[in-house]
Amino acid sequence: MTVQSAAAVHLPEGCCFVDGRFLAMACIVQKFGGTSVADLDRIHNVARRVKAEVDRGNDVAVVVSAMAGATNQLVDYVSQASALHDTREYDAVVSSGEQVTAGLLALCLQEIGVPARSWMGWQIPIHTDDVHGKARITDVEPDRIKEKFGEGQVAVVAGFQGISPNGRITTLGRGGSDTSAVALAAALGAERCDIFTDVDGVYTTDPRIVPKARKLEKITYEEMLEMASLGAKVLQTRSVELAMNKGVRVQVLSSFEDTPGTLVVDEDEIVEKQVVSGIAYSRDEAKITLVQVEDRPGVAAGIFGPLADANINVDMIVQNVSPGGGATDLTFTVTRADLSRAVKLLEGRRDEISYKDLIHDDGVVKVSVIGVGMRSHAGVAKSMFTTLADKGINIQVISTSEIKISVLIDEEYTELALRALHTAYGLDAD
Ligand code: ASP
Ligand code: MG
To answer: Is CATH 3.30.2130.10 correct for 279-424?
Structure first.
């Protein structure tokens, strides 16, 4: 059958007619971060990318961040106005950056003939709890946006914001527009959530340190979560959790280049599983050793209880029984920002805990190898340890999870360790 015009036939729902062909219509959510909307030229560029998706026959919702630097500026204003600020007013101020970009992008789309309308969180609405400054999305009502899709309109949504049960504007925590985009994609049943950013995908490790790092075609949600929590700050961690729970397929790609990015998907979608998919590192680590702590029940609770009460997160822990018995050395890590608070707290409790000495060191780095394939392959730890030993790198602390092995080493060896491990696990680009 040849069809001359779309008007000549009745199109089944979910289909559209483009360039003489029927296409199954999909819904795509696109998200553009701060650097992608940093000025009007870039917003025009974003509009062109949105139009390309519309021209493919898809329903499109676009989530935008504030212009690069805008949110920092707003946070600054708030702190200057009031040091101990009311978080409801913090949200009223810092959510405004996204309002500006949503309006501007809607205008730029209209300029190139794409019907578009801006949406603030409360207009959709995107419901959240009332934890101002770091609210969680509780529900997204997609119906009004869907109705406008029916009229061929693109929805331009202000990221990072929602509405509390009291009807006040909330924000989702820094980097929160990723989470807005994933939540919207889930509510709309979108085919994919494309996160456009200033990197072109997720790499096997930091390409600035390891020139042979490769862009991954696909990565699992779980691996991405481990990468994100280790400081590969491509996506807000919460957005990855949400994507995993709701089964939203996410793509990380560059807004400046026209190349496919990295798909973050369910394990089932990955046919050729690598044992190790990536190597991450975190410099945000500091090590504390309590020397010769009394070795009796309740000691660990006496140390880590008060740290937890002070909101100090402890990550890696090792305990050694000293020769002769009766005393043990205890080593653990905290973030660098928490180091001095942790040391002060432990020194204040020296008599209760009863230790001989406290040593601390913030010249350390945590290096982790990550891969879902580890669940079914033995020997991953062994090759990590031999590789580091061959380079003369001493391992200070080890911790493992089902899909991750982390070691704490001297910061000086970061590059050497990353490069050697990258080669050892066969990750180097040809
Ligand atoms: N503009 C907000 C921030 O800078 C949210 C975001 O960009 O994701 O944190
Ligand atoms: Mg971001």
So the answer is: yes
Please report which ligand is nearest the Cα atom of 196: 2
Residue (of 306, 310, 360) closest to 330 by Cα position: 360
Distances (CA, A) of 10 to 1, 6, 80, 392: 14, 8, 60, 72
Domain with CATH 3.30.2130.10 in the chain: 279-424
| Pocket of ligand 1, beta carbon within 6 A | 33-34, 65-66, 71, 97, 159-160, 174-178
What are the structure tokens assigned to 115, written together?
A: 């019907």
What's the whole-model pTM score? 0.86
Query: Which residue type, as a one-letter code, is found at position 162?
Result: G
- Taking the CA of residue 180 as reference, the ligand 1 atom at the shortest distance is 8
Strands ordered across the beta sheet of 317-321: 317-321, 327-334, 278-294, 357-370, 404-410, 397-401
- Residue ranges matching CATH 3.40.1160.10 in the chain: 13-198
Over residues 161-183, the pLDDT tens digits come to 999 999 999 999 999 999 999 99
pLDDT at 20: 61
pLDDT tens profile 48-86: 999 999 999 999 999 999 999 999 999 999 999 998 899
How far is Cα 379 from Cα 373, in angstroms, rounded to an integer?
11
Domain 13-198 classified CATH 3.40.1160.10? Answer: yes
Question: Rounded CA gap, 338 and 194, in Å?
Answer: 35
Query: Which stretch of DSSP H or E encloses residue 169?
Result: strand 169-171
Q: What is the pLDDT of residues 375-400, one digit of tens each?
A: 988 899 999 999 999 999 999 999 99
